[in-house]
Amino acid sequence: MRLTLAGVALAAVLEGLSNGIALLNPDVYDQLRFWQAGSLDIRTLQTLKIVLLPVVVAGIAALLLSRALNSLSPGNDTATALGSRVARTQLIGLIVITVLCGSATAVVGPIAFIGLMMPHMARWLVGADHRWSLPVTLLATPALLLFADVIGRLLVPGELRVSVVSAFLGAPVLIWLVRRQPREVACDCSVPPPDSQLSAADGRQPADFPARAGARPGAPDD
C-alpha cells in the first residue's frame, strides 16, 4: 500500500511539473497532448534506435533475473534465510523495470492497463514461476497492444487512440482477475476440522485431553 501511494504521489508531482513546463511553450504543449494520448504512430525510426539498446539489455536482464525473483516469492525473511541477496535482487529489478517502462513510455506515451494487466494474465495462464511468466508476458504484451491498435483503427480510423481501446479492454479483465483472486487463496471449507478443534470451539474438552495433560487414560478418579 505504501509503495502504491508513493507511486501515485510521484506521478502527480511529475505530471504537474511537465504540465507547468509545457504551458510555457505552446508548441511543446501540443506535442505533450499528443504524447499523453498514447499512440503507436511513430513518425521516424530514429526514436526506436534511441531506445532499442536499453530495451534489449533490460529485457535480457529481466529474463536472467527470473530465478532470483522466484526466491523472493515466499517473502524477504524466508528468502534471506535461504541465502538469497534480497536487496541486490530488488535493486536490479527496480533498475530493469525503470528502463523498460521508461523506454516504452517515452516512445508511445502512457498506455493504460497493458503493463498492469498482462503480468497478472501471464501468472493466471502459466503459474507464478517467473521463468515462464516473464517470457509469456514478453510475447503477449505487444500482441495485445497491436490488437488494441487494430481495433481502434477499424472503429474510428485515425481518431481513436490505442490507450482508449486498451483501457476498455484491460479494465474489465483486471477487475475480473482481482475478484477471483480471493477465491483462489480461500480455504476448502468442505473438509471438516479435527475433533480437537471442534471440541475447543464449543467449549468441550477433546477426547485425548487426559492423555495430553499427563493423566493415564482410563485411570480411576481419586
Automatic annotation (TrEMBL):
Q: What is this protein called?
A: Ferric enterobactin transport system permease FepD
Under the heading Pfam families, the entry gives: FecCD (PF01032)
Q: Which GO terms describe its cellular component?
A: plasma membrane
Residue intervals passing through the bilayer: 50-70, 91-118, 130-148
The alphabetical list of record keywords is: Cell membrane, Membrane, Transmembrane, Transmembrane helix, Transport
**Any one biological process term the GO annotation gives:** siderophore-iron import into cell
GO terms for MF: transmembrane transporter activity
Q: Where is the composition biased (Low complexity)?
A: 206-222
Q: Which domain of life is it from?
A: Bacteria
Keyword Transmembrane attached: yes
Q: Which organism is it from?
A: Klebsiella pneumoniae
Q: Where is this region: Disordered?
A: 192-222
- The answer to whether UniProt assigns keyword Transport to this entry is yes
Alphabetical list of InterPro entries matching this protein: ABC_BtuC-like (IPR037294), ABC_transptr_permease_BtuC (IPR000522)
The entry assigns this protein to a family as follows: Belongs to the binding-protein-dependent transport system permease family. FecCD subfamily.
Q: Tell where it localizes.
A: Cell membrane
The secretion signal range is none
PANTHER family in the cross-refs: FE(3+) DICITRATE TRANSPORT SYSTEM PERMEASE PROTEIN FECC-RELATED, FERRIC ENTEROBACTIN TRANSPORT SYSTEM PERMEASE PROTEIN
Q: How does it sit in the membrane?
A: Multi-pass membrane protein
